[in-house]
Amino acid sequence: MNAHDDTEAGRFWxxxxxxxxxxxxxxxxxxxxxxxxxxxxxxLPPGDAVDxxxxxxxxSTWLAGRGWTVLGVDVSATALERTRARAARAGVSDRxxxxxxxxxxxxxxxxxxxxxxxxxQTPLEFPRARVLRRAAAAVRPNGLLLIVDHASVAxxxxxxxxxxxxxxxxxxxxxxxxxxxxxxxxxxxxxxxATGPDGQVATVTDNVIALRRR
Length: 214
Ligand SMILES: C[S@@+](CC[C@H](N)C(=O)[O-])C[C@H]1O[C@@H](n2cnc3c(N)ncnc32)[C@H](O)[C@@H]1O
Prior knowledge:
Layout: H1 8-18, H2 31-40, E1 48-52, H3 58-65, E2 69-74, H4 77-89, E3 96-100, E4 112-118, H5 128-137, E5 139-150, H6 168-175, E6 182-195, E7 201-213
Parallel strand pairs: 1-2, 1-4, 2-3, 4-5
Antiparallel strand pairs: 5-7, 6-7
The structure holds S-adenosylmethionine (SAM).
């Protein structure tokens, strides 16, 4: 039994993953992660990374394939099991560990060269600003904090209600970071082409915050 099976977040996300098929093992990483890391190239050599809300491990496995040692964190035991299976299939098990956390309650006690928080969004009550501040605190000097959020609702999303997304600048302000300690690499809204579960294609918007710690 997962330590978080009895929290609201644990029950919600575990039911979601356990109730649906695993994503194909060849599903690639998030486009912005690949774009930012490829762009930084040797300026950000592989080191230790944490993937917050890693889901089924597409980003974690991709990072491990590029030489990163990755800690995948999620509240769902099924998601973490699938992350390990994906890493094994890709031959990078030795560089992917997983840890179960309800991030509203606990956080890995380590620091990292890359903290990836990709679509760490939930319909449940979640102390997001506090968790993202904790994420920033876990970034080592010269490391990268990458926060990418949905900033539009995809036409195939289950949630077609009126949703207001904070801008990248609003989220950045909520982190309350000392500007003397950080360099802005990207803080912006960015459109991308996305493909839905039935192959439908649409333009969606992400809010991207990529900061280097000095
Ligand atoms: C919208 S999904 C995004 C997953 C993945 N990072 C991606 O880019 O596709 C959010 C993920 O965060 C996880 N999550 C939600 N609330 C959480 C919490 N309180 N603690 C830890 N993980 C959580 C979910 O289980 C899910 O895998």
